[in-house]
From TrEMBL:
Its EC number is 3.7.1.3. The modification N6-(pyridoxal phosphate)lysine is found at residue 244. It comes from Flavobacterium flavipigmentatum. This is Kynureninase. InterPro entries: Aminotrans_V_dom, Kynureninase, PyrdxlP-dep_Trfase, PyrdxlP-dep_Trfase_major, PyrdxlP-dep_Trfase_small. Its cofactor is pyridoxal 5'-phosphate. One of its GO terms (biological process) is NAD+ biosynthetic process. Transmembrane segments: none annotated. It catalyses: L-kynurenine + H2O = anthranilate + L-alanine + H(+); 3-hydroxy-L-kynurenine + H2O = 3-hydroxyanthranilate + L-alanine + H(+).
Length: 425
């Protein structure tokens, strides 16, 4: 499509957008009494208006039923998490038995590593990407220390080539082959938080498993954002947070995936707790652990239903929309934002360098923009003028045009505000 950097053209795109109605289903902050242009759904998604009713339902049941709410609430608390299985499985491309919700992201990755990182004297190395999210880096370091290894010996980072912003697939595959028989685990972020690069999960998973390793994925920036086929891609395990693209609220519950081929493997170690115990016998308080068959067998504690309620509101909205429609708009609105940035770049003295891959297959709802010649003052100008975005040192802004609540007219308005901010400096 031939784009135009005009308000009329952006409004035309909005009029053709089948998801435009969903923008009114979210609560937006305001700056100067005007709804903001919100670009930080890759950090914390906006609150859906329907969320309050889901939380209020639990509060009312708690007040009216107290402990009896576990069994007699409209959505009984003791199996509340099971309502996620069907809609969440469609979001990540899994069987319903392969997904569950519990804890938070790094906690779940640690718990899954108990099962899937089992180093030996000869096979103990972990491959991850350079500049992984810091929480993942800390997790790797603590895990290898726990097993008696030194991070500098056990952790292998796949690096970017000199002068390049993104990691090449051939370099990932070459590193897997190089580490070979020493490789115990590949664990990479499905979408790099800094650059927005989308990794080839299917190809990397197959290569890691061919080398004899387990392969897991941190899908914090991928779930609800990219097309996932975790079951068909034969991924061993994965975890993701729910508060970015899935709008469940700050620090909220994490989703987990464990491939069905591991469900009956009694040799896998795991940290057990009573909510992972046989559901039909859970309240018999038996002394020996009998895990639920499926990902639910990795659950440990009674689920915090007040936290799960906003997440349930979100996954039910995703079920209405469908990932196919989300991805179609995602690609179009991201391409339009890219076009607007290039148009503004031609009109101002500064230089923008988009460090996110230009290939649509290697990116999703994020463009990371290196603002050469600009400083923090431009970011401050954007924030004061109603553009909520994210600053990363030295001078990168991350822009996430989330398809559920960002409009094409937002992209046009952002371009004008950005241009004015640069011209005023």
């Amino acid at each position: 499509m031939a784009f135009q950097n005009t308000r009329e053209f952006a409004q035309q795109l909005d009029s053709e957008d089948s998801l435009q109605q969903y923008q009114n289903q979210f609560i937006f902050p305001k700056v100067n009494d005007k709804r903001v242009i919100y670009f930080t759904g890759n950090s914390l998604g906006l609150q859906p208006k329907r969320t309050k009713a889901y939380v209020d339902e639990i509060m009312n049941d708690w007040g009216n039923l107290a402990v009896e709410g576990h069994f007699y609430a409209e959505k009984p608390w003791w199996d509340y998490q099971e309502r996620f299985a069907e809609p969440l499985s469609k979001i990540v491309g899994a069987l319903p038995s392969e997904v569950t919700v519990m804890n938070t992201l790094t906690v779940n990755l640690h718990l899954l590593m108990v099962s899937f990182y089992q180093p030996t004297k000869t096979r103990y190395k972990i491959i991850c990407e350079e500049k992984a999210f810091p929480s993942d880096q800390y997790m790797f370091q603590s895990q290898v220390h726990f097993h008696g290894y030194k991070p500098e010996d056990a952790i292998v980072e796949i690096k970017r080539r000199e002068g390049e912003h993104n990691i090449r697939l051939e370099d990932v595959l070459a590193k897997i082959e190089e580490v070979g028989d020493e490789l115990a685990l590949v664990l990479i972020g499905g979408v790099n938080y800094y650059t927005g690069q989308v990794f080839d999960i299917k190809t990397i998973t197959a290569a890691g498993q061919k080398a004899g390793a387990k392969v897991g994925w941190d899908l914090a920036h991928a779930a609800g954002n990219i097309k996932l086929e975790l079951h068909d891609w034969n991924v061993d395990f994965a975890a993701w947070c729910s508060y970015k693209y899935m709008n469940s609220g700050p620090g909220n519950a994490s989703g987990c995936f464990v491939h069905e081929r591991h469900h009956s493997d009694s040799s896998l170690p795991r940290f057990a707790g009573w909510w992972g115990h046989n559901k039909e016998r859970r309240f018999k308080m038996e002394p020996n652990f009998d895990p639920v068959h499926g990902a639910g067998g990795w659950q440990i504690s009674n689920l915090p239903v007040l936290s799960l309620a906003p997440y349930l509101a979100s996954v039910e909205m995703f079920a209405e929309v469908g990932m196919e429609a989300l991805i179609a708009k995602r690609d179009k609105i991201t391409a339009y934002l890219e076009f607007v940035l290039h148009e503004i770049d031609r009109e101002v003295a500064g230089t923008f360098e988009i460090i996110t891959p230009s290939n649509p297959a290697e990116r999703a709802s994020q463009l990371s923009v290196f603002l050469h010649g600009e400083g923090r003052s431009l970011f401050d100008y954007l924030m004061k003028n109603g553009v909520i975005t994210d600053w990363r040192e030295p001078n990168v802004i991350r822009l996430a045009p989330v398809p559920l609540y960002c409009s094409f007219e937002d992209m046009y308005d952002f371009g004008q505000i950005l241009k004015n901010g640069i011209l005023k400096e």
